[in-house]
Amino acid sequence: MGTTRKMTVAVVAVALGASTLAACGSGSSGTSGSGGGTTSKDVTLVSHDSFAASPAVLKEFTRETGYTVHVLKSGDAGEAVNKAILTKGAPQGDVFFGVDNTLLSRALDNGLFTPYKAKGLGQVDAGTQLDKDKNRVTPIDSGDLCVNYDKKYFADKKLAPPQSFDDLIKPQYKNLLVTENVSTSSPGLGFLLGTVAKYGDNGWQSYWKKLKANGVQVVDSWEQAYNQDFSGSAGGKKAEADRPLVVSYASSPPSEVVYAKPQPAEAPTGVSTGTCFRQIEFAGLLDGAKNQAGGKAFIDFMISKRFQEDMPLNMYVDPVVKGAKEPAVFTKFGATVDHPETVAPDRIAANRDQWIQAWTSLVVK
User: Fold this and answer.
1) SS3 204
2) Which of 156, 226, 266, 309 qualifies as a FRET site for 175, CA 20 to 30 Å off?
3) CB of 47 within 8 A of CB of 98?
4) Ramachandran bin of 113, using left for φ above 0, alpha for ψ from -120 to 50, beta for the remaining angles
5) How many degrees, rounded to 5, is the angle at CA 55 between CA 54 and CA 60?
6) For 110-159, what is each residue's pLDDT tens digit?
7) Contacts of 357 (CB under 8 A, 6+ apart)
8) pTM of the model
9) Beta strands in the chain (DSSP E)
């Protein structure tokens, strides 16, 4: 916001759409990579792979409530939602985090969540409360999915980086872009929805035909796209990383600064702000949760200022709670997106599956 999200840079084991240090710590940090062996004082959070929180913050939750958080990671967002649907009624945990506005209707239509109005919801940005009538999910963060570019590549080529969807289909950017599969990755789906919003029902397929003809590469996950194929990430400094454009987040550049040693004066990557789609992520109490009280307590905690202010440099997303402050490095190096593309939730619900099917036929098959 994702998308949103923690990047793997250099050899630091932090990732958006990949395992993270904070969320995979030992039991001493208040987290566990497994939901097994839990007790009534354990809360199991099922999430996509990019959930991360500072161990000290999770310990604070334990001190306040007596509950210990265990984190069960389930792949990219699309994969995690699919797994949750398959275990509906007998969930693997108590709370699910990471369903976003691109996938929300699918989760709600499948009855994944028990309604719960979180304490402190009045301080959450009303524009993010997409299920406010029923409170089956609680907004946790927002972010903008955008094309990122490798500054050095474009400087060396003396080529201006693309700034819009229209730019991406121009011949000078042929074979430069890598994106994610829309059926397995929420960043990929968000990018597709951005083109639907931009070009409409009658134009987006024509756009993707041109994008395919211009050499767009499609991979399964954000982790592969950003950390393996994108030449601008510190995790992608290898011979096979030959794509200087990638679908990622407006908040990706700060991570390239924070985890670099020494820290550069400016981010090595930039954001094409005319290619962005606004993403909102939610948490919900899973239907059939064994520890409903603990799950409710953790959802309350996720919209506390303490947790919200911890998110920007852990998951590289924006807080949704009024008054929550972002670190200076996050705001300095992140891109400001004034006019992101959006698609109404009911329109996504009515068309998402057919859009995915049409995209797959056009681009992958």
Assistant:
1) helix
2) 266
3) yes
4) beta
5) 100
6) 999 999 999 999 999 999 999 999 999 999 999 999 999 999 999 999 99
7) none
8) 0.83
9) 42-47, 68-73, 95-100, 113-114, 138-150, 177-180, 217-219, 245-249, 269-286, 318-319
